[in-house]
Amino acid sequence: MAWSGGLAEWEDGDTTFLSVAFTWKLDEAYTRALWAKAMGRRVVAGGPALFLAKMKHRLADVAEVGGELPDAIARHNPDATIASRGCPVGCWFCIVPAMEGKSFTFLPDFPVRPILSDNNLSGLPADYQDHIIRRYLDAGVPLRDANSGFEPMTFTDDVYRRWKPLINAGRGPWRFAYDEMKEGKDVRRVMKMLGDEPQKRKRVYVLIGNEPFADCMARIQEVIDHGCEPHVQPFIKLNSLSRTPHARPDWNDQLLRDVA
User: Fold this and answer.
1) Alpha-carbon span 259 to 14, nearest angstrom
2) According to the model, what pLDDT value does residue 100 have?
3) What does the longest C-alpha to C-alpha distance in the chain come to?
4) Sheet containing 64-65: which strands, arranged edge to edge?
């Protein structure tokens, strides 16, 4: 199944629900909310885009904002699930620590589906990683994609051995990120560890625009040199109302797009 693209909408009785993943989808969500209100419907909105404390958006004028809806991720993709929330790493450009916390919250009875979207699988306690894998094996559901991937600093030989049978059986990609130069040692270790895996299935998210041009290009080249596929992502501010990369010193908007 395809992802919703960052905005999911559904109805339950006389209520329209909107789940907004990205801030640049807030204006579209506002338009949908206006239409639903015009039809006499109650509108409830939530999601990461509305969590940001500094995000004051007109959507709040026409919709009830806040609250929690278990398994909302399935509204964005019916094949997606999540077995834990939170991440202890605390990357400055990531919303997860602020929204879900820097310690893990376990969801042991998660619905088993082909796309697993946990924030940091390798950082989870070993016994809980084993629990997730066992749930997939017992349910006979192939893991097609560990969507948010693994954290290089906690991706060890034990983690690799633990997840390899499940991920390779589902023929999904090995996903991890190379966001900053300081991660180089750990990223190179992981790329070497995955050396025998097919190149097209070693997907490394390379953030650009957050560091000088030369450093970002060096990270991209390292990924290529180690036989992996770089998936280049321009830095966008968490509260941006448009899907426009943020050009830091020695970058510009066009250069960010061209490199990506």
Assistant:
1) 47
2) 86
3) 58
4) 7-12, 15-20, 42-46, 64-65
pLDDT for 55: 62
**In terms of Cα–Cα distance, which of 169, 164, 165, 179 is closest to 142?**
169
Q: Within 13 Å of residue 59, how many CA atoms lie on the same side as its CB?
A: 30
Q: Tell me the two tokens of residue 242.
A: 């448009």
CA–CA gap between residue 142 and residue 114 (Å, rounded): 6
Q: What is the pTM of this model?
A: 0.92
CA–CA separation, 54 vs 69, rounded Å?
Answer: 22
| Beta carbons of 199 and 251 less than 8 angstroms apart | no
User: Strand, helix or coil at 260?
Assistant: coil
Query: What's the chain's Rg over C-alpha atoms?
Result: 19
Report residues of the chain scoring pLDDT below 50.
Answer: 53
What is the predicted pLDDT for the residue at 224?
97
